[in-house]
Design goal:
- The structure is a single chain.
- The chain is built from 6 helices and no strands.
- About 55% of the residues lie in helices and about 0% in strands.
- The protein is globular and about 25 Å long.
- The longest helix has 19 residues, at about 1-20.
- The chain has helices at about 1-20, 40-45, 50-60, 65-70, 70-75, 80-90.
- By secondary structure, it is mainly α.
């Protein structure tokens, strides 16, 4: 059961990263790693506020947001509404894509 939960968290966090950040061409792409947002899984899947570690990762990945928002694979797991809520609570404005 714990393994299933861990796999689910990884999928949810991966989805969050894709929704928030997307693939960015050029040198910025090297910094776009949705796995960095795994620490945000709890905040994305529940009403709990994001941790300071989650917010730090969201801020680091800000340049990747558009690509993640446009990724249909991540949208299966993370709604734009949840991604926006976490970003907002972290003080990060989502760009217009």
């Amino acid at each position: 059961m714990k393994r299933s939960y861990n796999i689910c968290c990884v999928v949810v966090l991966s989805a969050l990263m894709l929704v928030l950040m997307g693939q960015v061409p050029g040198s910025a792409a090297a910094n776009c790693s949705y796995t960095e947002l795994v620490v945000c899984a709890g905040a994305v899947t529940s009403p709990q506020p994001p941790s300071s570690d989650c917010c730090a990762r969201v801020k680091e990945q800000k340049t990747c947001f558009c690509g993640y928002l446009q990724n249909p694979t991540l949208r299966q797991y993370v709604t734009p509404k949840d991604a926006q809520r976490v970003a907002r609570e972290c003080g990060v404005a989502l760009p217009k894509c």
